[in-house]
Amino acid sequence: MEHKRITVNGLDLAYVEAGEGPLALMLHGFDTPRLYRYLMPALAEAGYRAVVPTMRGFAPSQVPPDGSMRLPDLIADANGLHEALGGGSDAVLIGHDWGGFTTWGAAAAAPERWAKIVVNDVPPLEFYARDSADPDRIERYVHFYFFQMAVADQLVAANDLAYLDWLWNHWTGKVPGYDSTEDRKAMKEGLDTPERLHLGLELYRQNFPAATFGTPQWEMARVLDKLPSQPTLYLHGTEDPVVDEATLADLVSMLPPGSDGAMIEGAGHFLLSEKPEEVNRRILAFLAR
């Protein structure tokens, strides 16, 4: 495994690489690229050039000079990485959390770059409308609303970023045998300065802005207005309440031929670390078809 750096869209991005073969690019979200520590070597062993970049703004990648954490720029970063890394039409794109939103958008925007895609725990936007008025659902997404407040910069930073510990546990399935300590530590290290923490919160402020979120002027909805044309695998933890079996069936039915989906029993939002053996098996089987 090699630690490297690359310039994409004028930004200096850090990434980790292992293996040789078709590009397999893995995108993290408001968490840590460390979540891919199990999948990365498995993909390398399966004959892929496995690459895990660190998102713009998160250490040790560069802070964007213009402060943009907008989804169109994240999508441009993903497709720019494909170009800069010499990816071919046989490349695959894998995303989790904000990396999942980015994957939906990047694959639809540049279908010629990606042969297959895998998305974990972030369904297409239209599925968030289901039960969106349910108080339990609103409470589950409390950070989306909290992060809009300017005071969140100070409150999230307090007590060694204790809110991030709470948020991680809020979204995990608390799977027996999974200790999130090192993952949470890595997440904090990625947001290790006030500037970087601010940009992490800006993911929510810029993409779910209070003034336009849910209106026809909402940019993110326009960016993600179409699904990818490539075969897609969608995986979701049963303890992450956004998707259930019925929703998964509807989702898969809308995806292109060759697509598939599965609920990962007992996993929460961080299934790549919580249930790595099952997740790796499903992803490798899908890519091998």
Describe the structure.
This protein is 42% helix and 17% strand. It is built from 12 helices and 8 strands. It has helices at residues 39-45, 71-84, 98-109, 135-140, 142-146, 152-171, 181-190, 194-207, 219-223, 245-254, 271-274, 276-288, and strands at 2-8, 11-18, 23-27, 49-53, 91-96, 114-120, 232-237, 260-264. Strands 1-2-4-3-5-6-7-8 form an 8-stranded mixed beta sheet, sandwiched between helices. Strand 7 (232-237), helix 10 (245-254) and strand 8 (260-264) form a beta-alpha-beta unit. Helix 6 packs across helix 8. The radius of gyration is 18 Å and the shape is globular. The relative contact order is 0.16. Residues 25-276 form the AB hydrolase-1 domain. Pfam families: Abhydrolase_1 (PF00561). GO terms for molecular function: hydrolase activity.
Give the CA-based shape.
globular
Characterize the biggest β-sheet: 8 strands, mixed
Separation, N- and C-terminal Cα atoms: 26 Å
Secondary-structure class: alpha/beta
Order of neighbouring strands in the sheet with most strands: 1-2-4-3-5-6-7-8
**Mean model confidence by pLDDT:** 95
- Tell me the number of strands: 8
Helix content: 40-55%
Radius of gyration: 18 Å
Work out the helix count. 12
The low-confidence parts are none
Order of helices and strands: EEEHEHEHEHHHHHHEHEHH
DSSP strand (E) fraction? 15-25%
Features:
single chain, 289 residues, alpha/beta, 8-stranded mixed beta sheet, globular
Topology:
Layout: E1 2-8, E2 11-18, E3 23-27, H1 39-45, E4 49-53, H2 71-84, E5 91-96, H3 98-109, E6 114-120, H4 135-140, H5 142-146, H6 152-171, H7 181-190, H8 194-207, H9 219-223, E7 232-237, H10 245-254, E8 260-264, H11 271-274, H12 276-288
Parallel strand pairs: 3-4, 3-5, 5-6, 6-7, 7-8
Antiparallel strand pairs: 1-2, 2-4
Helix pairs in contact: 2-3, 6-8
Keywords: Hydrolase
Domain AB hydrolase-1: 25-276
Organism: Streptomyces antimicrobicus
